[in-house]
Write a structure and sequence with these properties.
Blueprint lengths: L8 H8 L7 E6 L7 E7 L2 E7 L9 H13 L17 E3 L2 E7 L11 H17 L16 H5 L3 H7 L3 H15 L6 E4 L8 E4 L2 E5 L6 E4 H12 L9 H14 L4 H25 L14 H17 L2 H5 L4
Antiparallel strand pairs: 1-2, 2-3, 3-5, 4-5, 6-9, 7-8
Helix pairs in contact: 3-7, 3-8, 5-6, 7-8, 7-9, 9-10
C-alpha cells in the first residue's frame, strides 16, 4: 500500500455519493507498499479501505481482481470483497482513476513472523488455492518467468550500479530460467503477493488475506515459492530452514504437494526471488514528487537470489524446504 494520489474533501464527498456507506468521519493515507494509493476511511456505516488504482494496475484487470474477491468471500475465504456502488458497480472513479472500497478487516500483520506464523500462513495460502477452485476468471501472470528478460531490459546499468557484476549474473539467471523453468504443474488462481503485510492473524491464527492486485493464473507451487522468499529469510539474508519447512508443512496440511511440485520448489523459489528483484529494481529510481511511499531495496532480493542459486547448484533445495517431510 502507498499514497500517490491525494484526494480533497470535495472529491471524497463526490466519490462517496456513489455508495450507500454513510458520511465520512475520518480519512487518512496509508504509507506502505508501492503499487496503489490506499486510505483508511471511516464512515457512519463502519471502517473501510479506499484504494485508488495507479499505473501498475491495469484497469482492464479490475473485473478479474474484484470478482475474484467476491467469489472468495462467497466461498468462505476471509478477504475483503469490494463494496458495490448504488448502481451495482464494483469500482468507480476519483480524479479520473478507478477506485474501490473494501471493508476493513480485523486482525494484524506481523513484521517478524515466527515459525508458528509461517505454518499458519502456509495453511492460509493453501485454503486460498482451494477456495478459488471453480472461479471462472483467468489472468496471465504478466510478472512471471516469460516476462523477466523484458523486465530486465534497460535496467542493466541500474543493477550494475547496485553491485559490480550483478547485471551479468542476473542475465545468466534469466537464461537459466528460460531453459529449466518447470512446465505442466498444477495451476489455478494464485495470490502472487502473499507477503507478511498482506496476511492478518488473530490470536496467532491465520485470519485473512488482503491486496489481491497481483492475483493471476499460475502454478500453485510458484505461489508457495513466493512465500518462502517473503516469510522465511532472516535480516542477515540467510534462509531460516525451520521457518521454510513450517510454511511448507502448513500448506501441505491443507493441500498436499504432488511429487513434481516438490521437485520444482528449488527453482521456483529462485525464480520468485528474481521476480521481486526485478520489480524492486524498476521501482528503485526517482519517485513522484510528494508521493508517500517506501521503496523496497532490490539488494534484499539479490541476496535471496544468491542463496537459491547456490542451493539449486548443490542440489540442496529440497533439503532446505523439507517438502513432503
Amino acid at each position: 500500500m502507498a499514497v500517490y494520489t491525494d484526494i480533497t474533501d470535495a472529491e471524497l464527498e463526490g466519490f462517496m455519493a456513489e455508495f450507500d456507506l454513510g458520511q465520512p468521519t475520518a480519512f487518512k493515507g496509508i504509507a506502505e507498499g508501492v503499487s496503489n494509493s490506499n486510505f483508511l476511511l471511516e464512515t457512519d456505516a463502519g471502517r473501510f479501505i479506499l484504494t485508488v488504482y495507479e499505473a501498475r494496475t491495469n484497469e482492464k484487470d479490475l473485473p478479474f481482481f474484484l470478482s475474484l474477491l467476491r467469489w472468495l468471500a462467497d466461498h468462505g475465504y476471509p478477504c475483503a470483497p469490494p463494496m458495490p456502488a448504488r448502481d451495482g458497480a464494483l469500482y468507480k472513479r476519483v480524479r479520473g482513476k478507478p477506485a474501490a472500497i473494501v471493508p476493513f478487516l480485523k486482525g494484524m500483520s506481523v513484521r517478524r513472523p515466527t515459525v508458528a506464523h509461517c505454518r499458519e500462513a502456509g495453511r492460509g495460502l493453501a485454503l486460498l488455492h482451494k477456495a478459488a477452485d471453480g472461479f471462472g476468471g483467468t489472468r496471465v501472470n504478466d510478472l512471471g518467468q516469460p516476462f523477466w528478460a523484458g523486465m530486465f531490459a534497460g535496467h542493466e546499468a541500474a543493477a550494475e550500479g547496485l553491485k559490480p557484476g550483478l547485471a551479468a549474473t542476473v542475465a545468466q539467471d534469466i537464461v537459466q530460467f528460460e531453459r529449466l523453468w518447470p512446465k505442466g504443474l498444477p495451476s489455478g488462481v494464485i495470490h502472487a503477493d502473499f507477503f507478511p503485510d498482506n496476511v492478518f492473524f488473530q490470536a496467532g491464527k491465520f485470519a485473512a488475506a488482503i491486496d489481491f492486485y497481483f492475483a493471476c493464473t499460475d502454478a500453485f507451487a510458484y505461489d508457495l515459492a513466493v512465500c518462502l522468499n517473503a516469510w522465511c529469510f532472516e535480516q542477515d539474508g540467510s534462509l531460516n530452514v525451520t521457518a521454510a519447512r513450517a510454511f511448507v508443512g502448513g500448506y501441505e496440511a491443507e493441500r498436499p504437494l504432488s511429487a513434481p511440485e516438490r521437485e520444482a520448489l528449488p527453482i521456483l523459489a529462485w525464480g520468485a526471488a528474481m521476480r521481486f528483484f526485478l520489480t524492486r529494481l524498476q521501482d528503485w529510481g526517482p519517485t513522484p514528487e510528494g508521493a508517500l511511499i517506501k521503496p523496497h531495496d532490490p539488494l534484499e532480493y539479490e541476496r535471496k537470489l544468491a542463496v537459491h542459486r547456490a542451493a539449486f547448484a548443490s542440489g540442496e533445495g529440497l533439503v532446505l524446504f523439507g517438502a513432503g517431510a
